Amino acid sequence: MSQRPEILKTVTVGLLAGWLLSFVLAPTLLVVGLSLLSRSPAGFAGGPVTLDNYRRLADPIYLHVFAESFATAFIATLLCLLLGYPFAYGLARARPGLRPLLLTLVIVPFWTSSLVRIYAIRGLLAAKGALNNLLLAAGLIDQPVRLLYTQTAEIVGLVHVLLPFMILPLYASLEKLDPRLLEAARDLGAGPFRRFRHVVLPLTLPGVVAGCLLVFLPALGLFYVGDVLGGSRHLLVGNLLKDQFLEAQDWPFGAAASLVLIGLLLAFLALYAYAAKRIAPDDG
Amino acid sequence: MLVAFLVPVAAGQRELHFFNWSDYLPPAVLENFTRETGIQVHYATYDSNEAMYAKVKLLEGGGYDLVVPSTYMVDRMRKQGLLRPLDRSLLPHFGNLDPHHLDLPFDPENRYSVPYLWGMTGIGVNAERIDPASLHDWADLWQPRFRRALLLPNDMREVFHMAMRVLGLPVNSTDPAHIDAAYRKLRELMPNVRLFSSDAPQILFITGEVDAGMIWNGVAYLAARETPAIRFVQPPGGPLLWMDNLAILRNATNPDEAHALIDYLLRPEVARLISETVGYATPNAAAIAILPPEIRNDPLIYPPADVLERGEYQVDLGEAIGLYTEYWERLKAGQ
């Protein structure tokens, strides 16, 4: 009698497994193999097998590139959290009739490609752009300020693109928060700060961690934000990989660098899985 | 497997796969070509020599029929056997080309390539902020008054080409000591660099983001039409030259059709239309002859022959490209 669902299950799982094997595992193994080869002038890679590519990554310049990328992503994540948490809190406490509208407003930017929005930000921040015109008209400045092509502009772009990824998981965990717990805390004499610190924050921590990961990981890879708003003056990990594959034609070294990046990202995910298990509420 | 993506066509229908730079050919040209010859053109674009090369190399010199590499990339691709020698008997209009643009070091005797468009890299300056008369040579860009105000192309070869020129070194040097010296010189320029960009550089001048910078003459020409304050300064000494060239891939499936299109593009009126629409100079002498005199006689677009002869093109750097990239990364990482 359960024959049919069994077949369905086998087919679905088989398809999924086949997909992952051929489009995730196999290419990753190819990259691992590539990273152990040497650069070859005739092709893209050749013998001998070596660990040199990984050794070269220890050069201070590459450590610096990794460190700078992580620092930029970290600042963007922190700002997203500081902006996103109060917003998500307000969203979860808004009248139920208003919430779908507010949520839609968070999601609407996704309807436009992030690259297009980054170019739009460039228009706003330009020397003859909207922001400078406004400040000039208000008499606050008498000469256009050069806002673009700075690290600040780069971070503004990252926060703009990634903020919804912070708000949505935070909203999901804040919405589940039982208001009776807050009432109980108040009845027991806890002030607003203690209620937040000891009730709200611990219960929404999984949302905070999920939001931070969803912002931090893509922030490392959005190299075009640095190119368009940062003026390509700083080298981030994404640019480093692109340069190795296209300019230097050093595919083995590019492969090694991308594997190190993947390794670091996996470490973050493992940390998240561990933290989520630790802080998960025990009651069902 | 390599040709799996080719759409099967009805027997007898001729076709051609053309891989060109983006915004580098008015669509009407291909429509007219198809109408006249019946050859269907499948058109695809790229935005850097390196991206084109990576695809062609992976497809082992096939996948497309016709590509448009710059000088150094023609050099590299012909040395690696990715290009097919041209059959001059199929190119009756080849004689239209100005001999100044032929038989150059990156492809002696033009066995593999046909010049398409070319230009010079010079200094662009916004006259509203900087007196153009106070800026004549590349070395002036190092002056402290340009702090955080310069535009450089996001193009390693161009930037090193300029630095080698300033130091009086061979512009295509593969000597590690020369590359190191150019890097040190460029590191001194970094405080003046506002940004690296090759993406519509004229906008950055028009919107007042930069005061001066490296710019291609065609781009400066377009920008000046919108904002007359933008001037192009040609530093003394030989110009930094670049040229893009039509070339047929070694394993092209439609070489005859590719020759037919190259020859069509060499017709004076077609070359003129392309040059006027895209904004860069044509190497086609017969097309130059029918251009409006104010363009034809503008020394910033068509410099006198003696200036042109002192100019230098980029050639393939071979293995040294790895060292260049390392220094380029070092420069940007601020080490």
Automatic annotation (TrEMBL), chain A:
PROSITE patterns: ABC_TM1. It is a multi-pass membrane protein. This is Spermidine preferential ABC transporter membrane subunit PotB. It comes from Methylococcus capsulatus. Belongs to the binding-protein-dependent transport system permease family. CysTW subfamily. SUPFAM superfamilies: MetI-like. It holds the Pfam family BPD_transp_1. Coiled coil: none annotated. Keywords: Cell membrane, Membrane, Transmembrane, Transmembrane helix, Transport. It is found in: Cell membrane. The lineage of its organism: Bacteria, Pseudomonadati, Pseudomonadota, Gammaproteobacteria, Methylococcales. GO terms for cellular component: plasma membrane. InterPro entries: MetI-like, MetI-like_sf. GO terms for biological process: transmembrane transport. Residues 66-272 form the ABC transmembrane type-1 domain. The chain crosses the membrane at residues 12-37, 61-89, 101-121, 155-174, 203-225, 251-275.
From TrEMBL, chain B:
Spermidine binds at Y72, D155, M156, R157, E158, Q314. The keyword Transit peptide does not apply. It holds the Pfam family SBP_bac_8. It comes from the Bacteria. Transmembrane segments: none annotated. One of its GO terms (cellular component) is periplasmic space. GO terms for biological process: polyamine transport. One of its GO terms (molecular function) is polyamine binding. InterPro entries: SBP (IPR006059), Sperm_putr-bd (IPR001188). It is found in: Periplasm. PANTHER family: SPERMIDINE/PUTRESCINE-BINDING PERIPLASMIC PROTEIN, SPERMIDINE_PUTRESCINE-BINDING PERIPLASMIC PROTEIN. This is Spermidine preferential ABC transporter periplasmic binding protein. The gene is potD.
